[in-house]
Amino acid sequence: MSIIIATAGHVDHGKTALIGALTGIDTDRLKEEKEREMSIDLGFAFLNLPNGDCAEIIDVPGHEQFLKNMLAGIGAIDLVLFVIAADEGVMAQTREHLQIIDLLEISHGIIVITKADLVDEEELALVYNEIDEALSDTCLADAPRQIVSSRSGAGIEELKSQIARMTQDIPPKRSDLAPFLPIDRVFTIAGFGTVVTGTLLSGKLQVGDQVEILPQQTVARIRRLETHSQSVNSVVAGARVGIALAKVKVSDLKRGNILTIPGCLAPSRLLDARLRVSSLSNTREITNRMRIRLHLGTDELIGRVILLDKAKLTAKTEGLVQFKLEESFAARTGDRFIVRCYSPPQVLGSGVVLNPQPVSHRRFDQTVITELNLYEARSPRRLVEELLLLSLRTWSIQELAQQTALSVAELTEILATIEIIPIGTDKILHRCQMDRLKEKIITCVQDYYTKAPTRIYMDLSALRAQIKVEELLLEQAIVELTNEQRLQRNDVRVALTDHQPRFTPQQTEVRNALDRLYSDRKFQPPADLAEVMEITKSGKDIVEMMLTSLVESGRLIRLPEGVILHCQAVNQAEQVLTAHRSETITVSEFRDAIGTTRKYALPLLQYFDNQGLTRRVQDKRIIQRDS
Prior knowledge:
Blueprint: E1 2-9, H1 15-23, H2 31-36, E2 43-48, E3 54-59, H3 67-74, E4 79-85, H4 92-103, E5 109-114, H5 121-135, E6 145-147, H6 156-167, E7 181-189, E8 193-199, E9 204-206, E10 210-214, E11 218-227, E12 230-232, E13 234-236, E14 240-246, E15 258-260, E16 268-277, E17 286-287, E18 290-296, E19 299-307, E20 312-313, E21 318-329, E22 336-341, E23 347-355, H7 366-374, H8 380-390, H9 397-404, H10 408-415, E24 420-423, E25 427-430, H11 431-451, E26 458-459, H12 460-466, H13 471-483, E27 487-489, E28 493-496, H14 505-521, H15 529-536, H16 540-553, E29 556-558, E30 564-566, H17 567-579, E31 584-586, H18 587-594, H19 598-611, E32 614-617, E33 620-623
Parallel strand pairs: 1-3, 1-4, 4-5, 5-6
Antiparallel strand pairs: 2-3, 7-8, 7-15, 8-14, 9-13, 10-11, 10-15, 11-12, 11-14, 16-21, 16-23, 17-20, 18-19, 18-22, 19-21, 22-23, 24-25, 26-28, 27-28, 29-30, 31-33, 32-33
């Protein structure tokens, strides 16, 4: 098992020297670090423990000017070596780093008292008292102490044994989840091209894999993997790894990017989270729309915090928030973060990601608050089912995995116990949601009849406008309602199967008059609406409404070019057509056969073309007779 260890503590308290004594590796790689004898950026080493575990060690800079770099390395560690020099005791960055560790709730830690060879027993006792006072009421209050001297090697072997014992309580990283690697370095090596490094927090990677870099959604291929300066074919979660990438430029990448597999995550500028404010009494209160620095993974993001359930957040309080960030990022549910004030960059608090891809929320919206609370204190099955029941939308397995931080295998097992239905090729929906949607459709059509009692059909476009769901979802709901004989539909309209239109006495009179008019006129119908109004002595609105009603009922039929004929005339024309002795017929032949003009004969033939009764070939129609 690989575990991730990070150092923390004040500048010049011997963190780098301690790692050198433990591993034999000098983590100060930059020329400036050598010249100044001070860590500026993250350094990395590894330690093979007596119990067979391998510890990946991240050396973080202690100076306050490089706190940003420190935060890039400490966000996903398993164990902290909290370093305090015996000759100086608890200092400013000691307290600042302790505050960050406490906010991140890193409970596995060892207090390493370095430079023990520089003090006597009396001075050491004073340092112990200082440490006890500083660590009280923090997550490291009960952490074991270990005195060492990196110069003489005293206590180093005992420290290794302490680390090995503590690893027994650290759960292994999730190799069954999708790969997730926050990039902390980007550079180029002659012969290998673009190289990124980072700690693989979940999943597996192997040479030849196609990967995606987020948030820029750049796709690349792994050409080489290296861990502990050795080339390997594959790595698993917990490993510190260097990755040579094909088909990507160094200039396209930066620290803070996420390496994963294509389609696993999506970039966003919004983030829903629970934020816990530091317990320090001098911590600034967090107000709505306050500008902040968000340290997430290895990235530092600038943005504003929207308070969703509180008017403000003060020391020792917590609340639900949405971060609106100035750049895109990628994250997972459950990822931890640190928040600092934009200026001055004082640490404000920490939190956990709840929804990494939300929509913009209104403040104090109870539905939003309920949804975000689902992500906390729920069993995995309860979380999945409540997410499916929360809103009328479909989910892919990948989307659920991203929202719940569960593996595909875990989700498959959970979904087998929940009543779901497939939507399309890769989406699912809870059966209860489908039943709700069907009732919503029925109610919508009923409401339409209330407003338009003379109508039989409702246009599908009008239904879509009122029920704003995915097209595949609406289509499947209509199919189920049709199969249940609660709904009838054609390509563009739907109707309740038991619906009967209602007419006023005046509407009935006009409707019957129109029915007689078109029945009597057969193949010589009224030329236009004005003629119809003149004959029936009725207004435009009621005539149009009753014409529509007769068309919907099938008594009248709309032909191409705006022609309307009575159904009896159309049936008679069809009989004439099928009785025609030849296999083909021209427009003029058809015109003469039914005793009308070309104005009405041609639209009739076009209608029969659409019905499949005839097929046009040049200037003739082939009559499609029943075999």
